[in-house]
Every structure is written in structure tokens, then in C-alpha cells.
């Protein structure tokens, strides 16, 4: 997945270069520097709140289906609407962050999202619930792209993969804790109380985030003029490397969205018949994602970006195939591998986007996030439809096809890099 053009290669070199003494970039943070821990904790908590809210209904879909009398494919829209709302609004919200600042947009987004989160438990119908979830997802759109742009501006390049990995780790903790908590609370008091508890936790995370996040020191306000924004977006979409990274993010999330939307139905049905609390606890495997996302920087250092993506894709595919077994330990092992591969691949791809874009970073990250959450919505919907038609094997088939897409794109990127490498010596002569 190396750049396919000299311009893209130059962009990566510019971001990865070490600034000379006395330049403004010398003040960017590194691990151990003042404010780095506060920043890391603040964005970790933002990641927790984002994923806890975004997927708060995912582990509860069988209960929602039961209360409203709808099928899995219909109940899955409570997840798909949230991720779809985020995908649609992430680019406009990133534009606002270019003008008004990353911290301001992230704070406002969390404030709206947690407010809507406190209304979700009172939804009188599946239609209202889907609408509220769509609004919540749109509000959360201000977090992912703005957070990555904030890190790209405030953290030195060599520490960027690790910093973004910590933010992604917060996503995994939020996704895990949200599903585990909702599972056990719902078993005793129903799904409405459980999503209310998640809303209260998100409020606490939002307050702590605002108190902890250091004021940005390297933000420069951009323009909100449509012509300027469209030019920036066109520039990013014309970069072959960025296009490949966007597609990879979408395909990884297609796997993840499909698997975790449907897994509750599989484990509560035959041959497992697990209670809701136990099904919620299955999401403890997200802790594996916390580790793999945090280790993404070291993985890239040892294997390179393409090698890390091959490993992430292979791990995910192995997990999908293992999950076909009707033995619970093998299913759990499969989920562990799927989760580890997904979070590693996501951290590698998203950090590569932040490194590659030297201007309009929020828009570059927003395009990645948009593709990523479109993949989530597609995975949730198509995975549920496939499950309804062919059972768990149908969902796994969707996932395997998505992983094959990741591998194919990475192979094409490898070939493009080799062609570019052969051309450079010829051009020098």
C-alpha cells in the first residue's frame, strides 16, 4: 500500500520528516511530554463514549425485536441508522472543525449525542427509535475525524500511529463496555433501562473529556467556502493511496458490523440458547481489540503497513471460518480473532490516512470515517439479511468476501508501489 505517485510519496515524506530545530512543529507532543497523558485520556474517553452510544442497541436486538414484533433485518436499522447518520454527516462536521476548531466541534458533538441518548429509552415505536438513533449518529460525526485531525496537528509524526491507536482502543473499550453493561442490565430490567445507563456513562465521559483535553496549539482555521472544501475533497479522492485506505476501512467495518449485529441472534438461538446477560458478556472479547489497536504502531514498525494489513486480514478471515463451528469455545475463539484483526487493520489504515494528508486533514479523516461507517451500515444490514436467508453461514460469507476485498486492494497497492519504485531510477537517468 505504498503511494502510487510521486506526489503521494512526497506527501508522506513531508508529514513523516523530523522538523528542524526552532520550527513550530518542535512543540508538538510526544509520549511523556506535558499534556500528552491528559490528551490521551481525554480522547480515550471520547472514544469510549462514541462507541458505547453508537452501538448501544446492538447487543439488545433480540429484545428489541421481541418488544416491537419485528425481524432481525428491521431491528438492525437501530444500528445501521446510527452509523449511517455518522457516515453522512462526518464530512460536513469535519468542515466545521476546520473553521471553528477540533475541540469545539468534538465538545458540541458529544453534548448533542448524550442528550439524544437520554431520550432513546423513551422511544414509543421502532420508527421513532430508528430516527433518534440516526440523529445520535449524525451528532457523533463530529468526533472521529476531528479527533484524528487534532492528533495529527498536536502529536509528532513518529508517535502518531500509537496516539491514534489509543483513540481506537477507546473505541473498543466503549464498544465492549456498552454491550456488556446493556446485556446484564437488560436481563434484569429490560433494554430501555440498559440504554439509559449507557447514556449516563456517556455523559460522565463527555464531561471528563472536556475537562482533560488540552487546548490546541497548532490549529489554523480554514475556510468554509464550498469551492475550497470541494477542492480539498477532490484532491483527497484523486490520491490513489487514500482511495485504497478508504476502501479498506469500509471493508473491514463491513465484516465487523455484520458479525456483531447478528451474533446475539445466533447465541440466543439453537444450539447455544444463551441468556441475554451471557450474550452481552461475549463482547468482552473487545479487550483483544484494545490490545491490537494499541500495538498497531509496533506492528507497522516490524512488518510495514502492507504487511500489517495482510496480517490483519488473515486473522479476521481465520476468525470468520472458526466461528462456523457449533461449539461455543471455537465460536468465541473466532470472535477473538475477528476482533483482533479488525481493530489492528482499522488502526493501521486510519493512521495512514492522517500521515498521508498534509492539508485538509479533517476532510481526509472524514472521508475515511464516512467510508468506514458506510461499511458498518452495509455490514449490519446485509449481514442481517444474509443471516435471515442462510443462517450464520450467510453472514460469514459476507465477511469473507469483504476480507478478500481488503487483500485484493492491498495486493494492487503493492504492485503499484513496485511499478513506482522501478520508474524512479529510470526518471533519475
TrEMBL record:
UniProt-annotated location(s): Cell membrane
Pfam assignment, any one: MFS_1
Keyword Cell membrane: yes
Region: Disordered, residue numbers: 1-30
GO cellular component: plasma membrane
Membrane topology annotation: Multi-pass membrane protein
Sequence intervals crossing the membrane: 41-64, 76-97, 104-124, 130-152, 159-181, 193-213, 245-265, 277-296, 308-325, 331-354, 366-386, 392-413
Keyword hit for Kinase: no
MF annotations from Gene Ontology: transmembrane transporter activity
Matching InterPro entries: MFS (IPR011701), MFS_dom (IPR020846), MFS_trans_sf (IPR036259), Sugar_transporter_CS (IPR005829)
Keywords attached to this entry: Cell membrane, Membrane, Transmembrane, Transmembrane helix, Transport
Primary subcellular site in the record, as a coarse category: membrane
Domain Major facilitator superfamily (MFS) profile: 35-417
Entry-linked PANTHER family: BLL2771 PROTEIN, INNER MEMBRANE TRANSPORT PROTEIN YNFM
Family: Belongs to the major facilitator superfamily.
Protein name in the entry: MFS transporter
Originating organism: Streptomyces lucensis JCM 4490
Amino acid at each position: 500500500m505504498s503511494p502510487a505517485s510521486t506526489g503521494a510519496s512526497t506527501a508522506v515524506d513531508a508529514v513523516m520528516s523530523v522538523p528542524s530545530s526552532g520550527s513550530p512543529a518542535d512543540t508538538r507532543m510526544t509520549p511523556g511530554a506535558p499534556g500528552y497523558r491528559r490528551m490521551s485520556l481525554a480522547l480515550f474517553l471520547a472514544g469510549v463514549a462514541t462507541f458505547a452510544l453508537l452501538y448501544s442497541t446492538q447487543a439488545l436486538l433480540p429484545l428489541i425485536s421481541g418488544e416491537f414484533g419485528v425481524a432481525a433485518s428491521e431491528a438492525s436499522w437501530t444500528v445501521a441508522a446510527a452509523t449511517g447518520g455518522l457516515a453522512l454527516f462526518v464530512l460536513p462536521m469535519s468542515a466545521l472543525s476546520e473553521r471553528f476548531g477540533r475541540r469545539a466541534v468534538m465538545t458540541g458533538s458529544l453534548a448533542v449525542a448524550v442528550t439524544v441518548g437520554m431520550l432513546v429509552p423513551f422511544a414509543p415505536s421502532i420508527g421513532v427509535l430508528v430516527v433518534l438513533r440516526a440523529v445520535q449518529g449524525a451528532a457523533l460525526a463530529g468526533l472521529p475525524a476531528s479527533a484524528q485531525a487534532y492528533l495529527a496537528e498536536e502529536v509528532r509524526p513518529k508517535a502518531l500511529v500509537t496516539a491514534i491507536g489509543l483513540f481506537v482502543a477507546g473505541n473498543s473499550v466503549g464498544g465492549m463496555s456498552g454491550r456488556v453493561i446493556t446485556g446484564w442490565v437488560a436481563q434484569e430490567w429490560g433494554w430501555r433501562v440498559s440504554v439509559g445507563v449507557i447514556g449516563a456513562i456517556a455523559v460522565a465521559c463527555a464531561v471528563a473529556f472536556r475537562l482533560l483535553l488540552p487546548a490546541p496549539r497548532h490549529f489554523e482555521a480554514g475556510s468554509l467556502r464550498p469551492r475550497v472544501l470541494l477542492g480539498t475533497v477532490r484532491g483527497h479522492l484523486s490520491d490513489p493511496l487514500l482511495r485504497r485506505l478508504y476502501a479498506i476501512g469500509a471493508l473491514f467495518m463491513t465484516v465487523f458490523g455484520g458479525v456483531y449485529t447478528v451474533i446475539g441472534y445466533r447465541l440466543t438461538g439453537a444450539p447455544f440458547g444463551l441468556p441475554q446477560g451471557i450474550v452481552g458478556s461475549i463482547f468482552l472479547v473487545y479487550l483483544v481489540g484494545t490490545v491490537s489497536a494499541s500495538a498497531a504502531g509496533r506492528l507497522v514498525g516490524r512488518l510495514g503497513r502492507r504487511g500489517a494489513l495482510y496480517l490483519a486480514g488473515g486473522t479476521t478471515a481465520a476468525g470468520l471460518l472458526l466461528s462456523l463451528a457449533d461449539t461455543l469455545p471455537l465460536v468465541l475463539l473466532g470472535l477473538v480473532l475477528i476482533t483482533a484483526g479488525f481493530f489492528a487493520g482499522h488502526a493501521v489504515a486510519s493512521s495512514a490516512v492522517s500521515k498521508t494528508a498534509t492539508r485538509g486533514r479533517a476532510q481526509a479523516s472524514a472521508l475515511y470515517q464516512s467510508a468506514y461507517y458506510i461499511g458498518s451500515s452495509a455490514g449490519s444490514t446485509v449481514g442481517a439479511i444474509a443471516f435471515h436467508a442462510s443462517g450464520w453461514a450467510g453472514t460469514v460469507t459476507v465477511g469473507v468476501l469483504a476480507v478478500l476485498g481488503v487483500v485484493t486492494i492491498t495486493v494492487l497497492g503493492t504492485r503499484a508501489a513496485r511499478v513506482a519504485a522501478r520508474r524512479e531510477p529510470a526518471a533519475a537517468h
